[in-house]
Amino acid sequence: MDILSSALVLHVIIGLVGIIASYAVLMGLLKRAPSLAFLKYTSFTAFASYMLSWLIGGYYYVIYYGAAVKPTIKEGAYPWAHTLLMESKEHIFLFLPFLSFIIFLVIALLGREILEKRDLKNSLAALAGVVVAIGTFIALAGIVISGAAGQ
Amino acid sequence: MEKQIFQNTKQGISKAQIVNSFAASAIAAIGVIVLLVIAGELYKPLKSFLANAFVHHWIGKGVLAFFTFAGLGIALVFFDSSGENTQTKILLSFLVWVAVLGTVSIIVFFAYEAFFAQH
């Protein structure tokens, strides 16, 4: 497997790890008595995964996608897979490292307050829910883009 | 009273102050991303400038968003003394809405570009 294929596979796997970790954060926050250690571990895993996915996916996107995959999709049966989905995905993804870092920062610095103050916990859960929703959209868009590239 | 984690500053910096500063800077960073994405598509010289300055326009948007987040976050930690937990809740809620509206704005914009715009 060459370096570009490895980058694509790693980008997908690490991105999925990030979504799973974000979902674990959301579920942890929805519990009546969340485990602070679990929230710290999962929120850091999510943040680290999105950072790694940013670097590895970015390498693949900048080095290979624009020159080799994008023209194929735009000339194929589903050009909107690039013009709508890829354009949206590549930019909306940029939100995730910042959002996941904020979730980790709040849990790491204000963990006790989260356990004590329900409104703060709910606000953080809403943010984790947005991260899961964005991550899921990005993953589904990636599946459609891969399908369009293979036509 | 909340624990101060940097005692060497004049009044000390609370944990909530750090969280609030970076939550505010995350809102600004997402705003910068959305602005650069839409403005870059509508005004091609901006996209070209980002591509020339940062190898690729996408890298440029990420780098500028990162520096907005880090720079503004650090500046606010030291210059904004409002470290209230009630503010944290408001800032997190605002961040949720900015992220949702930013996501919807980008998708709607590219849907328009893909299906309706005349190029």
The multimeric state of the shown protein is heterodimer
What portion of residues of chain A belong to β-strands?
under 5%
Question: How big is the Rg of chain A?
Answer: 17 Å
Q: Tell the overall outline of chain A.
A: elongated
List segments of chain B where confidence is low: pLDDT < 50 over at least 5 consecutive residues. Answer: none
The string of secondary-structure elements of chain B, in order, is HHHH
Low-confidence stretches of chain A at least 5 residues in length (pLDDT < 50)? none
Main beta sheet strand tally, sense and closure of chain A? none
As a percent range, the share of helical residues of chain A equals over 70%
Helix content of chain B: over 70%
What would your notes on this structure say?
The complex is a heterodimer of chains A (151) and B (119). Helix content of chain A is 89%, strand content 0%. Chain A has 151 residues and is mainly α. In chain A, helix 1 crosses helix 2 and helix 2 packs antiparallel against helix 4. With 119 residues, chain B is mainly alpha-helical. Chain B has four helices and no strands. In chain B, 38% of the residues are buried. The chains are: A mainly alpha (151), B mainly alpha (119). Chains A and B meet through helix 2, helix 3, helix 4 and helix 5 of A and helix 1, helix 3 and helix 4 of B.
Blueprint (SSEs and pairs):
The complex is a heterodimer of chains A (151) and B (119).
Chain A (H helix, E strand, L loop, with lengths): L2 H28 L5 H40 L4 H13 L2 H22 L1 H32 L2
Chain B lengths: L14 H28 L1 H11 L2 H23 L5 H31 L4
Descriptive key words:
heterodimer, A: 151 residues, mainly alpha, 5 helices, B: 119 residues, 4 helices, elongated
Please summarize what this structure is:
The complex is a heterodimer of chains A (151) and B (119). Helix content of chain A is 89%, strand content 0%.
